[in-house]
Amino acid sequence: MSVQYMERVYNAYSSIYDFVFGKVFQSGREMAPALLNLWPGAKLLEVGVGTGLSLPLLSRNVEITGIDLSQKMLDQAQKRVQNLQLNHVRLLKMDATELDLPDNSYDRVLAAYFISTVPNPVQVVEEMKRVCRPGGYLVFLNHFLSDNPFVGFWEKIISPFCYRIGFRTDLNLHTLLENTGLQIDRLERIDFLGHWKAVRCINPEKK
What we know:
The protein has helices at 3-13, 17-21, 26-29, 32-36, 71-83, 121-131, 149-163, 173-180; strands at residues 43-47, 63-68, 89-93, 106-112, 132-143, 184-189, 196-202. By secondary structure, it is of the alpha/beta class. It has a single domain, classed as Vaccinia Virus protein VP39 (Rossmann fold). A hairpin with a 6-residue loop joins strand 6 and strand 7. The termini are far apart.
């Protein structure tokens, strides 16, 4: 699927996204602050900010940039920012595979329920690494391919069908990290079975 296709899909989701996915993914979003370990004045980038569901859970004494490909999702996020007076947040329309942001400009980068929605997750992670300072944290909240062979088999079978509605079910965490030169610093289960995970990586020193 192309970037343009995914943009159309999430534009279509914009008006119902909070109703469909708000409570379902809330427990994972609530884990983000502890994993990010922010401090006053820290700079955070959220890629795939969507309708901004993570924003109210994060500290108001940090600088937050949220980017998304879908303008209609960003419109919903902007309403949330205005209603809650989140004056420390700026929202930008941007393709995560080509971030129009300087190198080493963020202390933390968050991808909440996003990395399995993009056509090229490796390229997105490489961009996340580029804009994150060395030693900063990259935090992923996401579904990843199960280590259980039976469950993983069916996740691979249904993935092409799921991708047509906006996400893939066969993204392998270990392969993704291997291909992007990242290592797990902290890993937590989000759901009881562990198919959804909260993963923190430390951005390595640039070579």
